[in-house]
Structure formats: C-alpha cells, structure tokens
Design a protein that fits this description.
159 residues; mainly beta; 8-stranded antiparallel β-barrel; 1 helix; globular; disordered N terminus
C-alpha cells in the first residue's frame, strides 16, 4: 500500500524536463499503477532487428499478477477488460539500454472491468528491452530474440 501511494504521488507530481512531453490531459487521474516484467520481441529482417511485440505480466503493488501486455499494444486485466493503445509521445529513457518512455492514448476493446475506462497509459521507469546492437545476418533472417525488460505502467482515466 505504501509503495502504491508513493507511486501515485509521483504520478501526480508536475512533469518537468524531458518527461513534460509525457504529461496526460488535466482531466485525467491515475487509476492504477502496474509494474511489468517481460520481454520485447525482435525479429531479424533485412540484417536489422525489427520490433515485433511486447510480452509482459502486470502486477499489483503486492506483487500479485493482475494481467498482461502484448502486441497491439494491448493490456488485458484478469477480469477480461482490455485496451489497445496508440503512441502519442515518447521520450528517451534516462537509463542506458532501456526502451523509451511512452504516453499512449487508450481505447477499450474488451468487457467492462479494470481497464474499460482507461483513457491514457504512460510507460516509465524502463530497464532493458532494447534490440541487440549488432546487425543480424542473412542466416538469422526470421529468427526471434526476446530481450528482458521491466517498466511501470500508469493507467489514467478521465474525471
């Protein structure tokens, strides 16, 4: 509970510096903060590692699994509610080797539940997940690589 309250305080604090571009609308408030642990999946295409999809589990403040995140990008809660996101803004992560921080608009595409009223999603505090730096070879074409990552997802609803 304390961790959740601390994370909520961070979410409500004024955004400064590079994170300002990830600010939600004034009529949105934090409804849920879910730490995530998973992988970013890349495929070897034309000698480059191309992003395919995320695959991550979402947890509550006590560490209990409450849903998952996958291609779309989509987030699905254990109750079956589901949203699809569209990137609105991005900022380079402050940690080297971490995927960017994002702000996404969200649309409900599932049943009524935890995620059905979510209007925006913010991905922050990322670690890992970046595609391999080395080019892939023609022999590796079509191969997938799964790069571990963690992040915090902030789910916002309109007042």
């Amino acid at each position: 509970m304390i961790r959740l309250m601390a994370l909520a305080a961070i979410a409500m604090a004024p955004m400064t510096g590079f994170a300002h571009e990830l600010a939600v609308d004034e009529d949105e408030t934090v409804a849920l903060i879910a730490p995530a642990k998973g992988v970013q999946i890349y495929e070897c295409r034309n000698s480059e590692w191309a992003f395919v999809a995320p695959a991550a589990d979402l947890f509550d403040a006590s560490g209990k699994k409450i849903g998952h995140h996958y291609a779309g990008p989509q987030w699905e809660a254990a109750d079956g509610s589901r949203i699809v996101g569209k990137v609105k803004a991005r900022a380079e992560a402050p940690a080297e080797g971490a995927i960017p921080w994002l702000l996404l608009s969200a649309q409900s595409i599932g049943v009524k539940g935890v995620f059905s009223q979510v209007s925006s999603v913010r991905r922050v505090h990322t670690a890992g997940g970046v595609a391999p730096r080395a080019h892939c070879s023609a022999a590796e074409a079509g191969q997938l690589v799964r790069v571990p990552y963690t992040a915090d997802y902030y789910f916002f609803t309109r007042n």
